[in-house]
Amino acid sequence: MGIRLHNSATRAKEDFAPIDPLNVRMYVCGPTVYDRAHIGNARPVVVFDTLYRLLRHVYGPDHVTYVRNFTDVDDKINATAQARKAAGDARPLEALIRERTEETIGWYHADMDALGALRPDVEPRATDYIGQMVAMIAGLIAGGHAYEKEGHVLFRVRSYAEYGRLSGRSVDDMIAGARVEVAPFKEDPMDFVLWKPSDADLPGWVSPWGRGRPGWHIECSAMAHELLGAEFDIHGGGLDLQFPHHENEIAQSACCGHGFARFWLHNEMLQVEGKKMSKSLGNFFTVRDLLDQGVPGEVIRMVFLGTHYGKPMDWTAEKAVEAEMRLHGFLELIGLYGDLQQAKTLAPEPAVIDALSDDLNTHAALMVLQKLNGADQANALARNLEFLGIYSWETLETKVANFRGSQIRLQEIAAVLLQVREVAKAQKNFTAFDALKQRITTANIAVMIGKDGITLRPEIDMDLTKLADL
RNA sequence: GGCGGGUUGGCGGAGAGGUUACGUACCGGAUUGCAAAUCCGUGUAGACCGGUUCGAUUCCGGUACCCGCCUCCA
User: Fold this and answer.
1) Is the bond into A214 cis (omega within 30 degrees of 0)?
2) Nucleotide nearest to A173 (CA to C1')
3) How much is the ipTM here?
4) Which nucleotide, over all strands, has the C1' atom closest to the CA of A329?
5) What is the pTM of this model?
6) Domain of residue A222, residue span
7) What's the total number of domains in chain A?
8) What nucleotides of chain B have any atom within 7 angstroms of a protein Cβ?
9) Closest C-alpha to A265, from A31, A39, A9, A1
């Protein structure tokens, strides 16, 4: 079974065939690096990481190029830097901007690594591609698709007949909506900025139109073209980017004669406890907030994979708890029966590949894991957990080693407990036994009394130090 | 106003025109000094109104409600 993907451009599920199977190319809009990534930012990262893993599996790890940019020129970044300068920092604005983007990229990497997301093959920064943007803008002007006015360069939307096709909007309808800012230098209300002037307090680059900085949309067009060529396979991003960002990318690139992306994939939005996440509602939080609260990255990933990327997803604390329970069960099976050396030699389960190949049906893939768990297939379970990016081999090895290391100690404690129980039964007085059992329980170890004796089962946050004297 | 998504059992959440989703919770049983955990098992569905069909939760049409985008938020 080949890969099928829902293409936003055609609104249909289509067979995916790469332009060049030896180099499958995907571009995903990355973050504007002005602050910590919030939980919603993480959804496309996990979605497209999963697709990346599937493509690498099908076409070979060396035959996929995944590009995700960093937008490091942006008014919010400028604002942060200017605020620091106003607060008394004497360094030049450029240094403050650089510092801000550097630290934000570092945070982003750390947070997304925690979610098990592989680093893309290329992570271009917009500021490293200003020359390509200027060249593209110049080409658009030469072709009659853009014009300069008062230091701005604007894209002439009416020059591109297909404008609005991706998002299913007509230019006339949008103008009727009248929520478009009409700057005096625009020929048409829908025209958007390719280049804008920078005064001395803002970062800027020399250009044929004076010192200035690029508009947001041209960045992705220029970087995708430079790194992936005039035509490539997949362009991804959040649904909120479909309009105007992706629509504008298409217009710019198409008017430069680029074929641009053949497949467009959009993930639906994430909500929190049934509502849109926003600072005013108090349900706004970052990935780092969750990690710091003790919600592990693999739990966040499990929750994400539970809902198809094309559907709105609700983040709730309850889902996180449930995901953690399931992972705990998986780990126990692997801890008890897994052989990770053996597991590494296995191929991912065909049912998992089939599920992902069907427009990234991650939920179905998780159901396969559930079945493997139910069938005590510890090695296959480990292999597929790794394939889906839920656990790395390193993490699994550590967890299994800890589990097995603790097993010996747990057996010793179980022997003590069993002795106490024999005494209790003989004397028909269970007070001492219950007290000891309680101690073990508070160390986050489940006590299971069966006819074959006593088994102790460690919880995820077991604390053996509390039982050091036993 | 324009465009799009959704509505499934207590909760989360899929697929499939007719056969058990699955997980979790609840209930019953086994087990236990009592529990917990574990194992086994039962039950609980598909917003509403029409249509197509031998048969629809699954296809088509309509209604209601919820949500998102149209504002350089993924």
Assistant:
1) no
2) B2
3) 0.85
4) B23
5) 0.92
6) 18-267
7) 3
8) 1-6, 11-15, 21-24, 31-38, 67-74
9) A9
